[in-house]
Every structure is written in structure tokens, then in C-alpha cells.
Design a protein that fits this description.
336 residues, Aminopeptidase, seven-stranded mixed sheet, 10 helices, 35% helix, 24% strand
Length: 336
């Protein structure tokens, strides 16, 4: 077993490994890493080879900051054989960790941040990791099983969800999609309106242009319209068994048409058609926190049914434990 740096020629092999790993997701995909490179992040692509086969690895992201602690971040990872009955996952991770520790000395990053999609506790061999001050991936989230028939999916929704889908279609709401970066301008107009309406700090337009250009094989922009008026929009990532709703926007009027319901129902059907098994709404308010920032969107999402899934969130490990308390005390308000 050995560690290696992955090249572009191994991108398909890597993506297939990630797609087959239930504890990983699109943020470990090759195209997503190309997007993050366009955003100015340093990307490290590590693979673990055993018997001439790629069995594990990590795509690692790093952003240098002059005023904060900058971790080596592994969202949706590391990609390990978590379910193996022996200690294979531990051995793979030790190789990854050791290589990142060497890299950390060159780029002056004191810690590694992992965020696999595990729903149970971290295994004992990751006991050095502590809960990070912030998660990159929203948890909990709402996931719909779309491997069922359309009738079964509809019957699993709340009555209001089914009704609003039917109402939108009856009113003449139309849904279409595009994988063209030209559609970003239309999406961004709706996204910007939504951010202002809800007092959110949204990403700039260039962010979405880079995203769509880099992920054209797995992303689509959806729109719901009425007599040519764009009412709502969504950016969705299709990767492996999952379709993930990342960003959305809408206008503040024509709400009686219930256009977002028709749009998400259309997305679900598209996802089923290409073989996805789950639709992830990418974040929902925890049931026990009534004033959570996601509360205003969560009622809408919950009407589609689904299951609330809570993963472990981000966890940190300091390469030099003796520095951990010093860094946390000094920079606890600036940890990314």
C-alpha cells in the first residue's frame, strides 16, 4: 500500500471510486476540484494504491489566509473503505495523514479538517479529531428516496406538497433547464433578489460562472416560468446516487403559482431518469432550533417528505497537538 499524487489521466478512476463510497460526495469529485482551483484554492489530490488498484484517497483544499488559521480541508472525505472489516481504512488514512503532515510544514497549515458523510461516531482510530467550530456541509439535511416510483414519492409527501405541485402545473407553470454558463445571468438575477429579501450574503456572479463552467458534466440550472416570466431557479449537482440542490432564487411575487414546487418535482424526475437514488435538499433547520437561519426555507422543503439525515459534521486534528490550544485560543473567531 502506498500514497501517490493523482493526475488528470486518473480523474475517471477517481470519480468512480468516490461515487461508490456512500460516505463521500460531489465535493470530492474531480470537476469540483477544478472549480475550486478556478476560485484560487490550492488543491492536493492524493490516492492510495493497493495491489495496483486505487482504493482510497482525498482531494484536499487549502486557502492561505494572513489573518486566520487555514486548515487543510477535506469536505465529503476522506474517501476510505469505511465499511471494511479489517483495519484497511485506518492504514489508508495514516498514509494520507502522513503526507498531509509533510505538506503542512511547507504551507504552514497547522491542522486538517475532515468531513465525511458519516452518521455515527468517528472510529476510535480518529480519536485525535475534535469537533470543528464550523461545518462546510449543512447538517442536518433532508434527503428524499427517489428510487421509488413517482406515485410512491408523491404519496410520501405532505398533502400540501402534492397539492402545490398539482396547482403549479394546472396554472401553467413551465420548467426547463440549461447546462450553459449563459444561463447564470438569469439565475443570478433571481438569486440576488432572494439574498436581499432574506438579508443573506450571497456569492458573486463570477463564483457561479466558474462553477457551471467547471462542472458542466454534473450540474444544471433549472428555471420555473410563467408566460415567459422567470419565477424561480435552482442549481443542482448530479453525482453518483445523489442529486443535490445547492442554490436557489425566486422573485417576490406570483407566489400563488407555487412555481418552486413544480420546479423541484421536475428536478426529481430528471434525477430519476439518469439513475439517481436520492434528492438532497442540502440543509434543513434542526427540529429543536426554531430560529435557525434555515427555518424560513425548511417548511417548504419538508413538504416534499423525505428523511432528516444528520452527519457528524467537520472535525479537526492538529498536526502538532501542543499548538492546538494556543491556536484555538488565539484564532477561535477566525477559523475557516
Amino acid at each position: 500500500m502506498k500514497i501517490t499524487y493523482l493526475s488528470e489521466n486518473e480523474s475517471n478512476q477517481w470519480d468512480n471510486l468516490v461515487k461508490g463510497n456512500l460516505e463521500s460526495g460531489f465535493m470530492q469529485s474531480w470537476d469540483w476540484s477544478k472549480f475550486k482551483e478556478k476560485e484560487g484554492q490550492q488543491v492536493i489530490r492524493l490516492g492510495v494504491i493497493s495491489d495496483e488498484s486505487l482504493v482510497a484517497g482525498s482531494i484536499v483544499y487549502y486557502v492561505k489566509s494572513s489573518f486566520a488559521v487555514s486548515p487543510l480541508i477535506i469536505p465529503h472525505g476522506p474517501v476510505l473503505p469505511w465499511k471494511s472489516s479489517n483495519d484497511e481504512a485506518q492504514k489508508c488514512f495514516e498514509l494520507i495523514y502522513g503526507e498531509l503532515q509533510n505538506i503542512s510544514q511547507e504551507i504552514e497549515s497547522p491542522l486538517i479538517r475532515i468531513e465525511p458523510l458519516l452518521c455515527g461516531p468517528l472510529p476510535a482510530w480518529l480519536s485525535s479529531f475534535i469537533k470543528a467550530p464550523i461545518d462546510l456541509i449543512p447538517t442536518p439535511t433532508l434527503v428524499i428516496d427517489i428510487s421509488k416510483s413517482c406515485d410512491d414519492i408523491l404519496s410520501s409527501m405532505k398533502p400540501k406538497g402534492r397539492y402545490n405541485i398539482g396547482l403549479a402545473l394546472k396554472k401553467g407553470v413551465e420548467v426547463f433547464s440549461s447546462d450553459n454558463s449563459d444561463a447564470v445571468c438569469d439565475f443570478y438575477s433571481l438569486f440576488e433578489l432572494t439574498c436581499k429579501r432574506h438579508d443573506f450574503a450571497g456569492e458573486p456572479k463570477k463564483f457561479f460562472i466558474n462553477m457551471i463552467n467547471s462542472t458542466q458534466k454534473m450540474s444544471r440550472i433549472y428555471f420555473a416560468s410563467y408566460h415567459g416570466i422567470l419565477i424561480s431557479s435552482a442549481i443542482v449537482i448530479f453525482f453518483g446516487d445523489y442529486a443535490t440542490f445547492l442554490y436557489g432564487g425566486s422573485i417576490p411575487f406570483l407566489r400563488h403559482l407555487m412555481a418552486p414546487y413544480a420546479m423541484h418535482w421536475h428536478i426529481i424526475n430528471d434525477a430519476k431518469a439518469i439513475g439517481c437514488k436520492y434528492y438532497d435538499f442540502f440543509g434543513i433547520a434542526p427540529p429543536n432550533i426554531p430560529y435557525h437561519p434555515y427555518t424560513r426555507f425548511s417548511q417548504f422543503k419538508s413538504r416534499f417528505g423525505g428523511t432528516i439525515v444528520t452527519t457528524i459534521g467537520a472535525h479537526d486534528s492538529y498536526f502538532y497537538p501542543q499548538l492546538a490550544k494556543l491556536w484555538v485560543d488565539k484564532y477561535q473567531n477566525f477559523l475557516f
